[in-house]
Amino acid sequence: MTEAHLDPIPYLTDLLGPAHVLTGEDTRRHAHDWTGKYKGTPRALLRPADRDQLAAIVTYAARHRLPVVPVAGNTGLAGGAYCDGALMVSVERLNRIREINPRARSATVEAGVILSQLHDAAEAQDLVFPLSFGARGSAMIGGVLSTNAGGSNVVRYGSTRGLCLGLEAVLPDGRVMDVMSPLHKDNTGLDLKDLMIGAEGTLGIVTAAVLRLFPRPRAYATAMVAVSDLDAALDLLNRLQEATGGAVEAFEYMPDDYMRQLFRLRPEMRPPFDRAYPISIMVEIGATAPRDATPGPDGRLPVVQLLEDTLGEGFERGEVLDAVIAQNETQREEIWARREISAEICFSAAHVVDNDIALPLDRVGTFLERMTARLPQIDPAAESVTVGHLGDGNLHYTVWASSGSADLKETIREAVEDEVAALDGSFSAEHGIGLSKLSTMARRKNPVALDAMRRIKAALDPEGIMNPGKLVPPAD
Amino acid sequence: MTEAHLDPIPYLTDLLGPAHVLTGEDTRRHAHDWTGKYKGTPRALLRPADRDQLAAIVTYAARHRLPVVPVAGNTGLAGGAYCDGALMVSVERLNRIREINPRARSATVEAGVILSQLHDAAEAQDLVFPLSFGARGSAMIGGVLSTNAGGSNVVRYGSTRGLCLGLEAVLPDGRVMDVMSPLHKDNTGLDLKDLMIGAEGTLGIVTAAVLRLFPRPRAYATAMVAVSDLDAALDLLNRLQEATGGAVEAFEYMPDDYMRQLFRLRPEMRPPFDRAYPISIMVEIGATAPRDATPGPDGRLPVVQLLEDTLGEGFERGEVLDAVIAQNETQREEIWARREISAEICFSAAHVVDNDIALPLDRVGTFLERMTARLPQIDPAAESVTVGHLGDGNLHYTVWASSGSADLKETIREAVEDEVAALDGSFSAEHGIGLSKLSTMARRKNPVALDAMRRIKAALDPEGIMNPGKLVPPAD
C-alpha cells in the first residue's frame, strides 16, 4: 500500500525547515521509550510548528499512504508511540497555553503543553488541573488525552475523559475536526471528543483541548497509614469520604512488597514508620471550603482534625495500626515522592510483566490472594511488586519474571488476565493498550465491541496510516 | 432498499406473541409524542420481553432492510422517537433492576426501567441516582442514555455520560455489544460506551447499563432567591460553591417571564414571594457529611446555616433582594414543583420554538439582552419564556411565535442560533437533536465532525435501518 519508493524528506524539509526533520540518532529521544521495551527507528521525526503544519504533514502522508506515528511526551508505558520506519510526528512545538479562564474554570491548551506547566499556570490563578502522576514533568497533554491517562486524583475528580470539555484533532486524511467546546453541557451529535480520548492516535492526532479546572484546595491533610488488611483500608476510605463529604483526593495502596523495593532501590528515601507493615495507604484530603482550612482556636486545621478523628476511630477498632500525618509541605512532598516514583521502581527489573488492571474495590484482596498462590506455580523465582490507586480499584501489579522468555511473560500475563476476568475486573485501567496489550485485547475484549472498533477505525482511517498496529488488534 | 413487499407481522407475532405486536390505534401512546409535534404511524409497535427477543427483531429487520425506531418512555422533546412506517421497538418490558450494589455504589438496570423507579430503589439503600427531571415518572433509562439527558443536578454530579459506567446494546445487525463494565477505570479501547450515549438509537438500541450511585444527602437546604441581576446570581453561585465545598445540587434560573406564565397556567401554585422579581433562582445544597446534617445547639442544621449566612451576605451587598428557605420537606417539594413543571408550561402554547441551548456562564445575560432586542424585529407578537439550569449555563429559551408558519419558526430558530454561536454557546444542551434540530446540525456543526459522524453511522449501520433520519443530517 505505502509508496516505499517515495522519498518524503525533501517535501517535509521544505514544509518544516531542516531543523525540524530529524533522522537517525537524532530521533532517539522520541523513538526509544523509557521502559526500554520499545526501540524503533522512524523514517523521520517531524516537529511541526503548529496545527496547520501538522495537518499538512498528515495530508501529505495520506496522499502517499505513508504511516504516521504521533508522539507527545513519550512517557507512555504500553508502546503506543513505538515507531519503526514510519513518519513520527511530535506535538512538542504545539506548546501554547492559549487561555486560562478563571471565571469559566477552564484551560485551553495545545497538545505539546507539559502537564506540570499546566499545573503551574492553573495554580497561578488559584485553580488546579487535578490530573497528576509521576511523569507530569515530561508528559504532554496530547499524550495524556490519547492515552486516557489516570493518576492519583481520579477518586475525587474523575478520569481524563471527564476533565476534557472539548478538543481539536487532525483526522487521518489531514482535515481538522474542531469540537473545542468550553461548555459543560454540549449535546450536539455523536461523542467524537470521547472517541478521540483513549484512541492512542489511531483515529487522528489531538492538537488542542479545553480542560476543566477546579478550585485549588486551601489546605491538605496528608498521611501515611498502616492498616490491618484491605477490608480495613476500604472501611477507612468510606469513613473518610463520609466525614469529609467526598473530599478524599488520593487513597494509594503501597503494600510491603512495594515499600521493600522502594527503600532498597532508593535508600535515600526515609521509611514512614519505624517498622514494616503489610499494607500502607497514602491518604490525602483536600479542603476547598474556608471553614475546613481556617485554623481553630487551638491552631489546628479542621481538615486535619477530621483526618485525625477518623484515624483515631480506626485505631480503636484495630483497623488502623499506625499513622503519620504531614505537618508541613515538605513532609507532604516526602509522602508523595514515595508514591510518584513507583513507575521507576516497578520497571527497574530485567524482565518486567506490568499489569495495569482494575477490580471492583471489594475484590482487590481476593485477586492478590489468588495471584500469590498462582504465580509461584508458573515461575517459582518470580517476584511481584504492587502499587495502586485503591480508591479506583486500580492496581499496578508488576511481576518481575525470572527470565525474559516471551512464553513465560505471556503465560504470566494470561494468568493475571484470568483472575482479573473471573473477578469482573478490567485488563487495562489507565496506561493504555498500545502494543503491550494488543494480544490481551484480542483475547479478552467483547468480540462485537472489537468488530465495532475495527469498523470505526476503517471508517475514519481507510488507508490505515494512523499509528498502525496499535490499540485495535487485527481481525484474524 | 427496504423490502416493502415483505409482511414482517407473521414472523414477529410468532416471535413475540400477538399481545406484543401492536398496530394502528394501539401504537398511539408510543407513536405520538406529548409535545404534539411528532405523530406517526408505525408499521408495528413491538414489545420484546428481553434482550434476546429484541436482538432477534433487529436481526430480522437487518436481514430484510426494514427500518427500526427504538422507543423508551417517549418523553423526548426533539422527535427522536418519531416513527412512521417503520418497526417501532419499545424497551418497556426490559424493566428489571438487576442489581443495586451499595458497596460498589452502582446499579445495573435494563433500558425499560423508569427513572423514578431507579430513584426509589437507590434511596432504599440510602443512595441516590442523581439524574432527575420533570418527566422522571415516565422517562426510561434507555431513553435517558440515548438522549444523553441532563437535568437539574448536573452542576454537582455531572451529565448522564459521567453517570454511566458501562452498557449493553444491540447493534444494527442484531449482535449484542457488551461493554457492561462496573469499573470507574476501564480503558480498553475506543470509547464505545460514550458513542452509544447520545446517539439517539441511530447506532443501535441500548438494552442495559451500569450506573453510578452516590451517598444520599443527609439533609438539604432549599430556597427560592430573588436576585438583582444575572451577575449577582453567578456571584451567589460561586460563593455557595466555595462555602459548601461544591455541594450545590441545583441552581435553577426562573425569571419573571416564566413565573408569570407558571402562575397564569397553574393558579393553584403559590408564588414564592409577595411580589414579582425580574430574576428568581431555585437553589439547593445537599449535605452528605454528618457534621453538616447534625442540628446544632440551637436546633439548626449547619447546611441551612451556611445557606442563610451566604444569602445574608448577599442581602448586605444588595445582590440578594428576597429569599424563602424551605422549612420542611413539603415546602421543599413545593419549590421543586414550580421548576419541574417547566416543560408543560413552555410547550403549552400553539406555536412553540423551543431552544435548548448552553452558553458560557458569564454570557447568559448578554444572550438574553440580544434576543430581547432581536425577537420583536422578527415577530412583534412573539413571547419568550425562559427557564434553565444556570449552574450549567443551560437555558431553555422558548419562543411562543405568533403563527405556526414554518418559515417564521425557522427564522426565529436561526436568530437564536446566530446569537448562541456568536457567544461560543451550543445549540443543543440536553434535549438532543432528533428531528427538531436536524437542520441546525447541518448548519452549525463543524463539517469535518459531521462527516466523521456520517462515516461512523455508515460503518455501524451500513443499511441505514436504525432510527433513520435522526441526529445525523444527510450529506447534501
Automatic annotation (TrEMBL), chains A, B:
InterPro entries linked: FAD-bd_oxidored_4_C, FAD-bd_PCMH, FAD-bd_PCMH-like_sf, FAD-bd_PCMH_sub1, FAD-bd_PCMH_sub2, FAD-linked_Oxase-like_C, FAD-oxidored/transferase_4, Oxid_FAD_bind_N
Alphabetized PROSITE patterns for the sequence: FAD_PCMH
Domain of life: Bacteria
Claim: Glycoprotein is one of the keywords in the record: no
Keyword Protein transport: no
Keywords on record: FAD, Flavoprotein
Residue span(s) of domain FAD-binding PCMH-type: 38-216
Assigned protein family: Belongs to the FAD-binding oxidoreductase/transferase type 4 family.
Name of the protein this chain belongs to: FAD-binding oxidoreductase
Organismal lineage: Bacteria, Pseudomonadati, Pseudomonadota, Alphaproteobacteria, Rhodobacterales
